[in-house]
Design a protein that fits this description.
The structure holds two protein chains of two kinds.
Chain A lengths: L8 E5 L4 E6 L8 E7 L6 E6 L4 E2 L4 E4 L5 E6 L8 E8 L9 E6 L1
Parallel strand pairs in A: 1-9
Antiparallel strand pairs in A: 2-7, 3-4, 3-8, 5-6, 6-7, 8-9
Chain B lengths: L4 E3 L2 E4 L5 E6 L6 E8 L3 E9 L2 E5 L6 E5 L5 E5 L8 E8 L8 E2 L3 E5 L1
Parallel strand pairs in B: 2-11
Antiparallel strand pairs in B: 1-3, 3-8, 4-5, 4-9, 5-6, 7-8, 9-10, 9-11
Classes of the chains: A mainly beta, B mainly beta.
Chain lengths: 107, 113
């Protein structure tokens, strides 16, 4: 199984950008890189996904390394509502969640 | 609101019993996924159905079974319940069967006493 490695936790200040890293050195050519987040007491929420090119949406940006062995989720201006566990997942047939990164946003 | 609904929100039952959890996917989504989230195991993929057919299987126990009906709603049946089955059970849906983003419901919290 392809696996991802993320820091256990990160801290950010409100209204500052946040860069959440993910390593996936064993990624295969057909694996999409997905990011989800889970706020306290809620189900996971889709954030963004990509294959090779950088992607932007209203929630975040996804920067994918040229060799695809790592990626970074970018929150451009963190808010208190962005405090959550962020999961980086390689999606082929099924979706396997790791431990994720717990993001704390300080006011 | 993701558009995925799950019932019931909470369920308390005794060991050895059987329960059924229900999920309605977003309108137009053909795939339904079931996940279990416990404190010590994190989020575990259980099973996927696509347009009524089982498509992928994860860490689903033999005591657990699922099905997807013609109207695309899905049910997860848990039998011979044990204390360790206490967890949050999430359902998710996606448009197709491969690699699309998934939209999660609010979950059912199961407590086995």
């Amino acid at each position: 199984d392809a696996k991802t490695t993320q820091p256990n936790s990160m801290e950010s200040n409100e209204e500052e950008p946040v860069h959440l890293p993910c390593n996936h050195s064993t990624i295969s050519g057909t694996d999409y890189i997905h990011w989800y987040r889970q706020l306290p007491s809620q189900g996971p929420e889709y954030v963004i996904h990509g294959l090779t090119s950088n992607v932007n949406n209203r929630m975040a940006s996804l920067a994918i390394a040229e060799d695809r062995k790592s990626s970074t989720l970018i929150l451009h201006r963190a808010t208190l509502r962005d405090a959550a566990v962020y999961y980086c997942i390689l999606r082929d047939d099924d979706m396997r969640f790791g431990a994720g990164t717990r993001l704390t946003v300080k006011p | 609101d993701s558009g995925v609904t799950q019932t019931p929100k909470h369920l308390i039952t005794a060991t050895g019993q059987r329960v059924t959890l229900r999920c309605s996917p977003r309108s137009g989504d053909l795939s339904v996924y079931w996940y279990q989230q416990s404190l010590d195991q994190g989020l575990q993929f259980l099973i996927q159905y696509y347009n009524g057919e089982e498509r992928a299987k994860g860490n689903i126990l033999e005591r657990f079974s699922a099905q997807q009906f013609p109207d695309l709603h899905s049910e997860l049946n848990l039998s011979s319940l044990e204390l360790g089955d206490s967890a949050l059970y999430f359902c998710a849906s996606s448009v197709g069967a491969f690699r699309e983003e998934q939209y999660f419901g609010p979950g059912t919290r199961l407590t086995v006493t």
